[in-house]
Amino acid sequence: MAKFTINGEAASVDVDPAMPILWVVRERLGLTGTKFGCGAALCGACTVHLDGQPVRSCSTPIAEAEGKAITTIEGVAGPEGELSKVQQAWISEQVPQCGYCQSGQIMAATALLRDNPKPSDADIDAAMAGNICRCGTYVRIRRAIKVAAGLEPAKGAQGVAGGQA
Amino acid sequence: MHRSAAIPATALALILAGCGSKAEAPVEQIVVRQPGQPAASAPTAAAPAAGDLVAAGKAAFAVCAACHSVEPGGASGIGPNLHGVVGRAVGTLAGFTYSKAMSGSGITWSEAELQAFLANPSAKVPGTAMAAGQVADAQRRAAIIAYLASLKH
Amino acid sequence: MNDMTKPPRSRAAKWTRRGFIGAGVLTGGALVIGVGMRPGNPVAKLGPVVAGGKGEQLINSWLKIDADNVVTAIVPHCEMGQGAHSALAQMLADELEADWSLVRVMQAPADGNYLVPDTIRAFVAPGTLDAPDWLEPTWNGLFTRIARLADGMITGGSSSVRSTGQHTMRIAGAAARQMLIGAAAQEWGVPAAEITAANSMLSHKASGRSAPFAKFAAAAAEQDMPQTPVLKQPKDYRLMGTDAPRLDIPAKVNGTASFGIDAKVPGETMSYAAVRRVPVPGTRVAKMDASQAKGMPGVLQILNMGDFIAVVADSYWQAQQALNAITAEYTKAESPVRSGADQFARFAAVLDKAGESGGKAVVTRGDAKAALAGAAKRISAEYQAPYLAHAPLEPMNATVRVKDGRCEIWTSTQVPLMARSAAAKALGLSADDVTVHHPLLGGGFGRRLEVDYVVMAARIGQATGFPVKMIWSREEDLQKGLFRCADLSRIAGGLDAQGRLVAYSSVFTQRHDPADACDCAFYDIPNKSIRHAESDLHLPFAAFRSVDHSQQAFFIESFIDEAAHAAARDPLEFRLAMLGQSPRHKAVLEKAAAMAGWGKPLAAGHGRGLALVESFGTIVAEVVEVDMTKGKPRLTNVWCAADPGFAMNPDGFRNQMEGGIVFGLTAALYGEISLKDGAVEQSNFHDYQMVRMDECPAIAVEIINGDHQKLGGAGEPGLPPIAPALANAVFAATGKRIRALPLAKQFV
Questions:
Q1: pLDDT tens-digit profile of C109-144?
Q2: Looking at this predicted complex, what is its ipTM?
Q3: Closest residue in C to A159 (Cα–Cα)
Q4: Which of A140, C61, C376, C720 fits a disulfide with C553 by CB distance 3.0 to 4.6 angstroms?
Q5: What letter does residue C484 receive in the DSSP assignment?
Q6: Chain A contact set for C265 (CB, 8 A)
C-alpha cells in the first residue's frame, strides 16, 4: 500500500511498488492531465512534481513517492481554479497547438521559475530541454516563461473566456 | 491518377473491397482471468540480498539506460556515457555537450558526490539538464552507484 | 495586391447550396435545402444528437444557441493543434455577429450529416470550385455522393479554413444571423432591414428595443432558411483577420483537455492492452512463447492475432511488462530490402533505367533535352531523403467496447468515418453498428489519416468481449507503424551564356500528393521535363506533414541554389530574376530577404540560405542563418514570410508557421528511420532525435495578405522551405553541399 499526497490530498493505493507514478495517477486516480509519451524519461510529457521537484513519472516508481507530495497539472491552479502565472502566460502567448506535451511543459516551467524567478535564455534551455514539443511551440514556450517571470510584457489577452464544449 | 492524401490507402482499399467480410479470429487466445476477478497470488520479486547490490543496481539502471550508455567507449546519448564515471571529473567526456551548470560545477564524481546528486540533482547542480533524474529511494540509489562503480576497465 | 473592397468570389447563392448540401439531400437533381424544423430536415434529426444541453436550440446543422446566449459552433474537422476548431468558429461567429467571449466550439459527431465534401473537392478537383452557377448543383451533388461513399469526414491537406470554413461555416453563420433577425422582426413588428446584429445582441434603433440572440433562437429555427445569405466583405470583417484567442487553449493548460488516450468507457472497469506487431512488414507471428508472461501480475489475456501479439491486463504498465516477457518467432520476410542501402540501390536502379527522358512525364514544357544539350553550362545532382516516422507525441491508441453485436470506439483520428468502416469490416459488422467518438488529437501530422491502430484495438476488443484501451509504446510507433517514404531524385539543369536557368529536368521515384509538389511552376524556366519513375517501398506509406513537398522542396530548392552558384549569381537575385510572372512569390521572397537583412555581412563561420515554396495554396519563403563555428550546424535565426491569401487568424497562422519550421527542422537535422535486417533500427527519442528547446532558433514570421479570394492553408506550408534553406545556409558557411538528409549526420 503506497501512501502519499496527490495535489494536497492524502491518497493510498494498493499497487505494485514498482508501478510508475504515471500509471498510478492516470489509471488509479483518474487524473489524465499527465501524459504518456515515450515511457523512457526522454520526452517530458509525463512530468509531475515530487515534493516540488520535477520528475518523469513514466520512469519513477510509486515507491519513490512514499510519504511524499505528488503534484500534477491538475494541482497547479488554485483551489477555485484560478490559474497560476505560468498557466496565464501560456494562454496570453497562445502557446499550445495540439496541447499533448503542455502539461509536462508547464510542470517543468513552474519548477524552473520557483527555483530561478528570473531565468536567462540559457537557464530556460537547460531546464526545458527535456521536454519535447512535437508541434514545435518552443518559441512561444520561451516567451511565455519570460512573461510569467515578468521579464517581458504579455502579448495577448489574459483570462480568455471560451472553451471546449 | 495519383492518390490523394485526403483519401488514405486503407480507406480506399476498404471502399473497393466492400464491407461485411468475416472477422479474423485470434490464432491463439490465453485467458488467465476475467477483469475484476482477484488474481491468484501473484509472485512478488524477493528483495535482493546484500551481496547482490551490483545486480540490483544493474536492474534499477534500466530507467537510466534510456539516456546513458555504459559500455566502454559507447556513444553518449541524451546523457553522457557512464563507463568509469566514478572518479571522473565532470565535463571531461569527449563528444558530449554538458550543460553550463554541470561543466561549471567542478565536481569529480566520487560515490558520495553521486549520492548527493542522484538524491536531488537540481539541488546539487542547479540548472542541470538531469533535473528529472532523481532517485529518491536510498536503497535503489545505493544499488545504482554500486553498479556504476563496478564499471571499470 | 488585390482590391480588398471586393466581396469574396462567391455568388452567395452558390455558397448557400454548397454550404448546406452537406446536411441536406439531393433529390431528382433539385436541391432541397434544410429549412427550419420541417420534418426530415437536419435540424429536427440532429437536434437530439448535438443539442442535448440545457435550453440549447440548434439553428442549423452547424450552430446552436443556449439560454445563456452562448453560441456553439459545431465543427466537422478534428482538432490536432492546427487551430481548425477555433478558426472555423471564428469565421462562423463573424458572419453571425456573435460576441467571441460567448462562443464555444464542439466537435461534430462522426456521422454522415457532417461530411466535408468541399475538402475532398478542393483536393480532387479544385478547378470545380469556380464552376458556373448552372453547373454548381451537379458538382455539388457529385462531391456529396463521393463524400458519402468515401466516408468523407476528413481533416488534412491544410484545407479546413479554405474549404469548410469558407464554403460552410461562414454561410451557416450568415444564414443564422438572418434567421434571428427575421424572428425578431416578426416579434417586434418592424422591418427586418432595420434590425442590426452585433455582439450576440439584436437591436432596433428606432424603437430602442434590443435582446440577446437566445431570446429568438427557437423562433429563428422556424424561419425559412435564407437562399442567399449575404456574406461580409473584407472591410466588414470583425473577427476574421484578427488574433481572436483560441477556444481550445484554456483546457490545454489545466489538464482538462481530453485526448483519445484519456477516454473512459462509461460504467465499466477498464482493462489495458499492450501490443507488439511483427518486426518486418508483411511477416506473421510463427510461434509465441507466453509461458512466463501468463503468470505475471495483472495479466488477463494474451492474444496471438497473427500479425501482432497483445497482452491485456489490469494496467497498461503490467500489460507492457508481460509483453516484454513474451518471446516470438516470425515468418520470413518477402521483401528483399534489408537495409537503407538496399532501398536506395533499388531507387537508383529505377532511375538508371529511366535515364534522361524515361519515366512518366508529369510536367513537360518546351524541349528540356535539347535545351540541356545546347546549354552554355550544364549541372546535375542527386538528392536523397530518408524514411521518417511521424511520431506524434500521443502514441497510437484506441479504446473499444464490443458487446451484443455493437462496437463503440474512442480514438484520436483525422478520419472518424473511415475508422468506423474499417472497424466494422474487421469485425464483420455493419458500419451502423459501430460508433466512433473522436476527441482531441495529440498530434496527427498525417499519421492519423490511417486507421490501422483502430482496427487492431477493435480486434482485441472483439476477442476479449470486455472493454479495452490499447496503447502503443513509443517503440511500436517508431518501428512498426507507417512512414514518410524515402526517395531519390536526380536533377539536371542548363544555364545559358547570361547565367539564366533555361533547362530543368528531374526524375524521382515517389509521387503521392499534392500532384504538383514536384514542380516549381512559379519560376519562369522555359524548358522543363519532370518525370516520375516509380519504385516500390519496403516500409508502408502514410502521408507526412506536407507530404511530397517534404522531400521535393529539398530537392528543388537545393538544386536552384546550386544553379545560382554555378551561374556565379547571388541566390536571391537568381530567384528573383525568374519570378517575373509571379508577383506574389516575388513579394514574399523579397519580404523574407529584407527581414533577414540579406546581403549584410555575417560573423565568420556563419551562413545564410533561403528557399521559396508554394504548397497547399500558401507561398512561403524562409531564410536561415546557421552558425558553423563549432563544426556542426546550429541555427541562430529563421525569418519566414508567408502569403496565405488572407490569414483568418494571423497569430494562429504564425503559430503554424513556427510549428512547421520546427517540425521540418527536426526532419532536416536528425530525421532518419533506417533499416537493419529489414526492421527499423530506431526505437525511441534517444535515437530518433527531436529538436528541443536548446536548439530552437529565434523565428520571426510576417504575413502578406495577397489575395483574399484565394486562401491557402496553414498547417503544412511552413515545413517545406526549411530543409533546403538550411542546406543552402550550410553551403554558404562552409562550401559543403549537403545532398542527403538528415543533415546533422554529415557533421559528426
A1: 999 889 888 888 877 777 776 677 777 778 878 888
A2: 0.95
A3: C250
A4: C720
A5: B
A6: none
